[in-house]
Amino acid sequence: MVNTGKTSTGKTSKGKVSIYVEKSRIKARLPRQYFGGEQPRIALGMDANDANMARAQRLAERMTLDLQDGCFDETLAKYGIIADLKLKGSAVTSDDQLPPKPELSLMEVWDMYCNFRRESLSETVFQLKFRGEYLRAIQKALGKVGESPLDIRNWLLNNYSHSTVKRVLSCLSEAYQLAIRQKLVHQNLFDGMAEDINTKKKTERIIDQSKEIESDDDVLDQSKAFSWDEAQEILKYIQDESNRVKHYYPLIKFKFLTGCRTGEAIALWWIDIEWDRERILLRRNYNNRLKIYKSTKNDTVRMFPMPKDGELWQLLKSIPQGKSNENLFKNKVGKPINSDSLQRVWHGYEASRNKGIIPELIKQGKVKKYLPCYNTRHTFITHQIFDLGRDAAIVNAWCEHSEEMSRKHYRDIEKYAIQINPEISVNNQQSELDLLKEQLRKQQELIDKLLQDK
Description:
Elements: E1 18-22, E2 25-29, E3 41-47, H1 50-69, H2 72-78, H3 106-117, H4 123-145, H5 149-159, H6 162-181, H7 228-239, H8 249-258, H9 262-266, E4 273-274, E5 279-282, E6 285-287, E7 292-294, E8 302-305, H10 311-317, H11 339-347, H12 357-363, H13 376-387, H14 392-399, H15 407-417, H16 432-453
Antiparallel strand pairs: 1-2, 2-3, 4-5, 5-8, 6-7
């Protein structure tokens, strides 16, 4: 058992909250003097690890100060800690209940809810959604219409997608239910407000090209992909010596040749290039907003074929090789390319007098319409399936674009998919089924030979 907040004699300092570990969970021991001689112990909702121990210690110090200041209950509420405690000397009513406290504001309820949910969410979801997108939506609504729940709902519906509003209102309802259970508020102001919102309803919104949505929902929609001829025009324009975007050529061509996600391409290191096995490993993603590396979207390590002396092989050979943990794709000053700068180059940025790759090609009549840079992925997938006649299961093993396909099926086919050349048409190479049969025949011959040699 680990204890903190103790004196040199091993005893808890008088009047201070201490923390300890029990069954791999962190708990707090409260000082007796505030609870009539009893020493309550409460669970803090944290697993015992170094980061959480440091966090728990800070929380213990906060609780100690708030016990001294008489606002201990507010600390419990803020951190989502549920405990039925009675402080010594607290006034009670005839039914032995604590006197009513002032109702929490909407933002206080939201902060408490976020702290309660934090342990159950991934850090990216917590930061980008609960402390990012949802929080900003709530703050903007409060700034425009105040704390009226109905006005907040209507303002959100007029300014955000229905799916986002439904999620925000659902979370607010959950937050108020949590506050009610802790007797911090008396009523759920957002109860039922999300129920009748139709998330399939299309709302008219101006598309902001600088805020591109990376979604695999429509990767097989050819209208969301450039034609392969347009892809070649885009690459030709980027490679032109006369413009200032040539250093983006390797990254964008890599995306067209592999169909990988933007974050996966940016996160590619030299250790992921296996020249001897003629393949590339896609095993991490880079979140530009949080500046962190994380696993791929579906937590898999994908293998992509890189036939020797093929177009993809030659592209990577043209890049000066760095150390094993260095990024492949860098900007003009030798730093890893960032997705924000890539988007600005792609769609244009007036502040830097950048016309944008796609708008300029549309003006020249070489590209029909604007599509986000992420849609290089759509372009590769539709080119493989509809132009080259590739089996969709093979393309999925390379790109993992279907979340409905089970991991087992993905693993069954990936060893076969790694031997298919993505740079030539199915009609120009041995039938993929015949290739598989030939592999099985050779394996059987080897087995028969080994048996004969015994």
